[in-house]
Recover the amino acids of this structure.
């Protein structure tokens, strides 16, 4: 059989298997959507995913990195391909009106009861992971190698990927040659968007405490005024983007929170800042974080602060860099599967993911990638809604559509589930087939 | 009778009348101390003071400026002398252990129930006012003119003096030629401290809202960042004291409070500041306030703030300037009454009072004095306690003694009450006698 | 004749005509190189260019915009194509060791005598313009339309293009449908680099005077300190790039010069700044300039400056935006002429040109383009030198090669002259042919 | 003889001796005035002073601390009193029109030829020192102790006092119990002004170099921008006076000079500042200097400066603190000599002197005084000129009169010379008599 014919055959095989799996995957999706769980609380979700994959013959391990699930299908010599889906939901009260809408609540780590909703479509991701698992298990005669399905907890708090790695994901199971993942988005259902290179932002939120030495507002010389230090810190931080970051690089440093003092005539003891940093280059991101620390320490010295400032990483994730060669390999597989007309060039998003940690296993920190990663986007807006949306192209229409994290966001139609299974399966086969 | 003999006779007359009034004044003091009232709630206190002065033959009006009391004794042609005592207490839980300690609570303007205590000795001031009223009524044969006793509400919030003036104090009753007042302090009981010229600070606390236009921390160009504007405001405000205030002047500008934002990755809509300004020159104080407004408005323009900043005066009072000639006249009267050895030179205090408004009736704002004022201090520390206190002189010993606004502050011994009556009476007679 | 055959014929025709013109063009080049002239002093250069084009049958006008030359060849109905070459040299002492190296000096506008050198290769540009004029005149049977050759003065000071437009270039001669230009660079000789869209930076240098009110250093309150205002201006300007420019845009604001005062104990009357702004989007560039003015005016108000600050544009040029469709048309013409292997994708340069003014005739200021422009780059590094240079590709090798404005830069080999004639001629024929 | 009679006798004795000395002193004054010398060049002046004092029987040493002169009169057991006069002139072209006006020029340390003038009346001080030496030598029967006359070089550059101390003034000659000095001023001739305590300012001018790492204005990330660091230094320095100096203290920190860069598009390598600091408390002055260094070092760290900043003391002198007890002793001696009506209370001046170094011999730096000093002022405005001058009192009239350092300032009338001799002699006798 010619290469061309082979490709056409594989396309048809995947389509057939996807159709076969759809009903069960749709059932799983509705069940997960109805029972969302907060980050690191995905006990029920993990169990459902594990059961489904065990039933398909996968070698399944639960509780990896908390509630994560790892499912292996060792199928002879060949590369190891990791497919990743995330499982956690958000503390949002669902307003979609779906008949399987969530009415769940849960207790947060701080002991607060909140409503829970799959407002970011991670239920879709987990279901498609299981669906792709079914497709690829069904097609095991047609490929060689090791398939590693990873259902990850706690993506929303940028913790689950690292937790699984810390729990020995690559040592206990297999070290992948390629890591593949996807996310739903408000684009026409059935379409797939790719972006080579820099794709999503690194993001760190620092909490900083600046120490002064308070006292009465009328006697500043007997105090160290942390409000003045904090003000100089904020003005000084502007120089990072203005002078230290190469002008062609996209970096943002935002002091979103600055709290000090209780009333005008009392000089407070300290000031609290929260600083958010974003950028698309991990090495530069680390430099920016170092610059922030350098500046704040120096300003505290300038202001004769009696104690060193304190720095706390409140949330953090790496920039996502899609390996250029690998993303082209995926794109070609998807072109073969869906036709070029269903592919689009994804613009770079300012959002963030903890997916890149899977590519960064040995580099650590913001050191760079050592396993190639590819992350793509699947459209989840029903055809009719898409036609009615003003604007041309993804970027313009997106402004008019419900976005992830909205209480009205509902991405999980059958067409999207089918696309999400086929994208994972066909991309995996680009290495295994 | 010689002038000298006359003076000696007056000294003795005052002493005799003070002794006669003591028991009743002490009773009033204990009653007021046991039943303290918050600013503008001095209904019971005002009634007690009014009753006592009516009984002495004064022409009494209640409810002036809220709960204030005005008592007139018109006694022929001659100058008008105003004696002022304040009546309000503080939201502090008394810890003095006195047998007549307060157990009162009250509801604040914000609807919060708080304990109440005469921790600043305004009960002493009101009692001495009544006592001096008794002394001077008893001596009416020996003087000519008009005596105006003013029991003022709400000194602690810098509101009562202006409220009485706004209610027509000088139009409805009499415009004084001299305004006299006093305050207790931790100095040896029986002593009196005078300070000519600049005596207490003007103080203004401004609340300022700086408007930005919030948004996501990753998209600063679509926002106006009020945190950055606020930081530039704080650094810029430092130039007022450093560059605009003559270096020999004592002025403080403190940003005691700066609150903006809720978390690192959200640029907030506004920033809130509280700025406290203090100084000893009313005209310069007004200039400083204008400079603050000028700087904040300009920084908001520099930062393309979408709306003008908002300024609210949270508290404010004038600087107290003791008229030099009048304070010398009072000092001489007190020297004749008590002997030079019981007088001391009072150092300038960083504290503030709303007493100066009585001298500023027509000038308005920070424009200057138009009626001469004299304000002195009476020692309230029992002799034995004073001897035991380390340090030499008032300034050093003060550091070791309980200060007003402490829950342990208890100034009202008989010796102090007697001094406080005699100071007012003898000072009034320096004009009326 | 087929379209393909026609193209191949044209390629050959151009090559032939280029070879025929080479000797004369090379002679002109050596002459111009040996006699460089400063901006707006290109009298001899303009005359040489004019004579050569007149000899070719062009309708030539001299002295347009000072020393500029316009040469028209009206050749029937059809589009108007403008080819631009610049003529001015730099105040640099030549160190190339060429046998036709410059030994010229000239007097600057400020009356200073300086050495002069064609260190930026504008002699090459003028010579190629004449050469392309010869080629296209020779081929006039093969095209229809109007050819307008423009030899521009004073590119180095960003003045010549606008001077020619102000002198009625488009009104007196012809309004082009397309404006074409080129620049030499340190890339392999014979190659041509194209860059669609944003290609070179807008650049403005502002001179700013901030007014204070000087006095003795010990009496700041009697002065307005311009040093403090200037310092706040500099810190405040950092917020433009940090907060007002979208993070994905490349903009730089540099205060390269700040001079105030003569000695420590005298507060000066004013401060002088020079601010350089660069960016690739003309509309955004204008916004940045407005932001600078807004900030400086506001800081002067904050600092109670007695007079408005003064702003002077010292140098300024627009960003160069290569019209995407037109650059593709040129690229295809060049591919046909030279083969794809001699083309390269030019990276975006931080340098600036005043060429874009020709595309901006009616828009004015930084308003945008109204006539499409294409500007490309021709390699000028001899083959052997190129092979010896370390690095892969243009960007890496460029770091090791002499750059324009170096006293050692010598781009004008025969191979480069031939390429520079053929690029202009073939690009022009993409519209005229 | 009664104490009162003794005093009256001494007054008369001094007056007589002053009259006797006047002609020679006036001659010396005119000679010195006509031949002024720059700091550390007072060779002729020193010789003239030395000769005159040798002729009076003093034990004279020349060349102390460069050109200084020390003259001792050991007259039995008793205290040692030092009288100081300074000798140097200024690089000013005299415009007084006096018949003995200077026409001298001299070469500065930098090799520049400048006109020279006694525009600060140091000729008067030296002459009065010699005159007082004559008076006290003549009266030697009436006192016991050691008289040390010190003619000091280089007061104008704040160097001569320390130079003499460094040359062993107190070790080689005598350590004084009291140091006395005086300065002429625009007040009514014949009057003497005293000021207890803080009298003249400490003053330091620092030169500071801030190191950056320059480069092209378009590539800030490859540079360290010293302009931005300098701007943050200036804004930060404002917090010293605003927050670190007690508000009741008089301190000024002025950045009078800030130079960086040559043109807008080049980021310079460094920035140069000159910072002038003034204050009346030596210990606080030292703290302020330390704060400046702390802030600049920290800001250089914040701005990642590649090298530590450099600090140079350009000029410096201590604050003058007149010992309270000693100034009262002098004042009483002057009252006895001249009558109370010729004394006035001198207001504090913002000017500076290096006289205080003589009181600071062992303390070093800004450590405080260890030998009591008294420095007073003598009026030098002729009676008629004084009457014609508008204003009341010294402070008001001073604004209308020529001040020291003016080319028109001419203080040396006979009445002033007589006063200046008598002030020194009578003050010395307050310790020796």
């Amino acid at each position: 059989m010619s290469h061309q014919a082979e490709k056409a055959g594989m396309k048809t095989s995947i389509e057939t298997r996807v159709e076969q799996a759809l009903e069960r995957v749709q059932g799983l999706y509705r069940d997960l959507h109805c029972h969302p769980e907060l980050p690191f609380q995905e006990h029920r979700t993990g169990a459902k995913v594990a059961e489904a994959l065990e039933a398909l013959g996968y070698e399944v391990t639960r509780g990896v990195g908390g509630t994560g699930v790892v499912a292996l299908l060792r199928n002879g010599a060949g590369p190891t391909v990791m497919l990743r889906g995330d499982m956690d939901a958000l503390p949002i009260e669902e307003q979609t009106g779906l008949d399987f809408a969530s009415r769940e609540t849960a207790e947060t780590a701080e002991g607060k009861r909140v409503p829970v909703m799959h407002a970011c479509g991670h239920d879709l991701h987990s279901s498609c992971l299981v669906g792709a698992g079914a497709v690829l298990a069904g097609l095991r005669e047609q490929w060689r190698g090791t398939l590693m399905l990873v259902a990850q907890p706690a993506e929303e708090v940028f913790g689950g990927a690292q937790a699984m790695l810390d729990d020995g994901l690559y040592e206990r199971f297999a070290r992948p040659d390629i890591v593949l993942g996807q996310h739903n988005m408000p684009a026409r259902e059935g379409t797939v968007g790719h972006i080579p290179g820099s794709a999503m932002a690194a993001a760190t939120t620092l909490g900083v405490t600046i120490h002064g030495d308070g006292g009465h507002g009328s006697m500043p010389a007997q105090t160290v005024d942390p409000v003045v230090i904090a003000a100089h810190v904020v003005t000084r931080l502007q120089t990072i983007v203005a002078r230290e970051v190469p002008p062609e690089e996209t970096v943002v440093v935002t002091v979103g929170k600055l709290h000090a003092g209780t009333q005008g005539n009392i000089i407070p003891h300290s000031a609290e800042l929260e600083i958010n940093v974003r950028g698309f280059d991990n090495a530069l991101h680390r430099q920016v974080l170092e610059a922030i620390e350098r500046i704040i320490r120096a300003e505290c010295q300038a202001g004769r602060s009696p104690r060193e400032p304190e720095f706390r990483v409140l949330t953090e994730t790496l920039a996502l860099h899609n390996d250029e060669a690998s993303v082209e390999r995926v794109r070609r597989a998807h072109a073969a599967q869906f036709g070029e007309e269903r592919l689009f060039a994804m613009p770079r998003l300012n959002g963030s993911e903890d997916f890149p940690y899977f590519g960064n296993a040995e580099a650590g920190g913001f050191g760079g990638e050592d396993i190639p990663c590819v992350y793509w986007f699947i459209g989840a807006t029903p055809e009719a809604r898409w036609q009615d949306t003003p604007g041309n192209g993804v970027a313009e229409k997106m402004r008019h559509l419900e976005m992830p994290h909205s209480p009205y966001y509902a991405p999980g139609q059958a067409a999207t589930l089918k696309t999400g299974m086929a994208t994972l399966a066909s991309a995996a086969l680009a290495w295994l087939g």
In short: The domain at 3-200+319-432 of chain D is CATH 3.40.630.10 (Aminopeptidase). Chain D is about 35% helix and 25% strand. Chain D has a mean pLDDT of 94.
